[in-house]
Amino acid sequence: MYNMIKIAVRNLFRQKRRSMLTIGIVAFGVLAVMLFTATAGSFKNIMVGQITDSMLGHIQIHSKGYVASLDNLPLDKTIKTKQIKKLKEILSSIPEIESYSFRILLGGMLSNYKDSTSIKLAAIIPENERKVVPLLEDRLVKGTFLKEGEILLPDLITKGFKSKIGDDIALVVTNADGSVNGQSFKISGIMESIVGPTGKYGYIHFDDAIAMLRMDSAEISEVAIRLNNFDDMKSVFTSLKKKLNKIKNKKGKPVFEIHTWEKLSPFYSIARMIDMMSLFIKIILIGIVLVSVMNVMIMAVYERTKEIGSLSAMGTLPSKIRLIFLFEGFFLGIYGSIIGTIISLITVYIVNISNVSIAFGRGSDILLKPSVSLSQIGTTVLIVVIVSMLAVLEPAIRASKMEPIEALR
Amino acid sequence: MSLISCDNITKIYQTGEMKVKALKNISLEISESQFISFIGPSGSGKTTLLNLFGCLDKPTEGLLKVIDTDISKLNYIERAKFRGKHLGFIFQNFNLIPVLTVYENIEYPLVMVKSLPKKEREEKVLGLLDAVGMLDQKDKMISQISGGQKQRAAIARALTTDPKIVLADEPTANLDHESAYKVMSLMKKLSKEVGTTFIFATHDPKIVKEVDIVYTIEDGFLTKREDKSENGRQSNV
Ligand SMILES: Nc1ncnc2c1ncn2[C@@H]1O[C@H](COP(=O)(O)OP(=O)(O)OP(=O)(O)O)[C@@H](O)[C@H]1O
Ligand SMILES: [Mg+2]
Fold first, then answer.
1. d(CA A75, CA B165)
2. Where would you tag: which of A114, A127, A238, B189 has the fewest CB atoms within 10 A of its CB?
3. What pLDDT, on the 0 to 100 scale, is given for residue A15?
């Protein structure tokens, strides 16, 4: 075995420039994959973090059928007081949940006694909301966060209304029974509008909403949940869903529906696209490795025909001849991926210390923190090595099947 | 005991429609510890016959036994194993492995074909290096030694596995007069020492002078057998 490895490695150094070139191409492919996945991964993390931390939370629970009619913010599809109690029990039984926040979503008419406009509002309990979406408060461009009797308005509306902090503004809403109620609010803060489903919502206090909507006891439109660890999302989602599905109405249908942020945000498809692009880049890498390794190895077999013939004449078994070439492919792949990995790590390190920033969502200069994980390195190296060995398979088999007399002529 | 026995052997090459009858009704016996050469004009069939002896090819007709084995019954792998076990090869253009040193080249069959333990390998290889006078060259790469030295290394390599038969097709064709002479006398000496039968194909009169038995092949026919050893006899076949 050692002898075959020795012969294979030395064979690589025989055509130094050619082997170096191939190793270089493989290294370049590895570099491209690693840099892309590192930066795209960092960008994706930033994006997902912004979306989940400034509006959606990680997981949301609604009354069955609510999300389908989300555009109307229906007040008859709320989670009722009795179920809220059960919900609280379930939520507090799952240790992976860091915090949760109850929201009432409602539509209304807003008037500054001169102009009026329609608005969508989220009624929240500020302390809880802060814990679930910590970046929400960052969206305040002016003023302070919410207290009872106050309203936070998106900047687009305050601009149109020419309103200032401290101005009074009237809000009129219709409750589930159809009766209309109005109340005056003080503008306590102006929020930056952002892209996304709830990016242009106004905010009022939960208790104000209960009063205005004449609810006898609290009802809620949605529960936003934040987990201790974002990576637990899938498993918590599954266990939560199982528990929630056990709660059924009189007709035996589940009362709740549950969604991860992915199902609630259009940005999920962008995140998916980034994943797809990573996959394409990997496929391109496979192509590069396959073609370049196969190319040199076909040449090598051709050039060494006489040598292969004499090995075979001396009684070297075909399997051993095959192995020599497979090792050559293996080492081309290993050297290429090691060099590529080293250059990638250096580049990623440089990007990290030179503070490259991007703008997304709330953040205007969020630091890009590309990182390469050990498992990424592992899979990339594995792919490259396996593909290199696949690439030499055909030439290696051809070499091992050569008739010595033909080869020696 | 006969090492090689040919009974009415014919070899036909077929390339497309073209049929070339390279060997025609060859019958002969070769016994142990002989020093034998096949001579004849170019294209007469010498290489073809040596390839058959070397189990690199099979006869079209007739029975060929090498060391009591009917080689036409062996498949590709069995033939490779047979060659590794019983035969040694010396090539016209040496065919040493260029990425290995002289020492490693001679060691190669012991590792890759016979898998002998390291200690025994070393003993064997150093002994042979000494025998062919290449001890001082053992760590050089093949590209760093002369043609004569290459062929001496190749002789050592052919003998490492203690083969019964060493086949050499034009072993001196790429050597100058002096190297050719040295190589020849070396082979003759080793042949007597280790009791291996050497079989050559050649045009080279130097070889012919040295050998015990000379077979002449013309146009695929074995036309003459000449025994030059003390108790030899001359005969037309
Ligand atoms: N693989 C082959 N396919 C077809 N014909 C072949 C093949 N090998 C040899 N021949 C033919 O068989 C005949 C004998 O060839 P061979 O190589 O045995 O001659 P030789 O005596 O070794 O000649 P030389 O002294 O030139 O080496 C020649 O006519 C040659 O053209
Ligand atoms: Mg010939």
1. 100
2. A114
3. 86
d(CA A102, CA A183): 22
The pLDDT of residue A13 is above 70: yes
Q: Token pair 């590794």 is at which residue?
A: B84
B23, pLDDT greater than 60: yes
Task: Tell me if B42 CB under 6 Å of ligand 1.
Answer: yes
Residue type, A4: M
At B97, is the pLDDT very low, low, confident or very high (cuts 50, 70, 90)?
Answer: very high
CB A261 within 8 A of CB A198: no
Answer yes or no: do A315 and B109 touch at CB < 8 A. yes
Q: Are strands B221-227 and B197-201 parallel, antiparallel or unpaired?
A: unpaired
Rounded Cα distance between A47 and A36, Å, is 16
What's the rounded Cα separation, in Å, for the pair A2 and A381? 22
Q: Which ligand is nearest to the CA of B57?
A: 1
User: Is B99 in Cβ contact with A309 (below 8 Å)?
Assistant: no
- The pTM assigned to this predicted structure is 0.79
Mean pLDDT for chain B?
90
Q: What is the largest CA-CA distance in chain B?
A: 54
Residue A346 has pLDDT above 70, yes or no: yes
Rounded to whole angstroms, the Cα distance separating A128 from A295 reads 62
Are the C-beta atoms of residues A37 and A300 closer than 8 Å to each other? no
Question: What is the C-alpha separation between A4 and A31, in angstroms, rounded?
Answer: 30
| Cβ-based contacts of B57 with chain A (< 8 Å) | 405
Residue with tokens 């629970």: A61
Q: How many CB atoms lie within 10 A of CB A283?
A: 11
pLDDT grade for B237, boundaries at 50, 70 and 90: low
Amino acid identity, residue A306? K
| Residue B15, amino acid | T
Nearest-by-Cβ selection for A314 from B51, B57, B113: B113
Domains and CATH numbers, chain B: 2-95+162-236 (3.40.50.300)
In this prediction, residue B234 has a pLDDT band, given cuts at 50, 70 and 90, of: low
For tokens 């009415």, the residue is: B8
Q: What ipTM, to 2 d.p.?
A: 0.91
B216 touches ligand 1 (CB under 6 Å): no
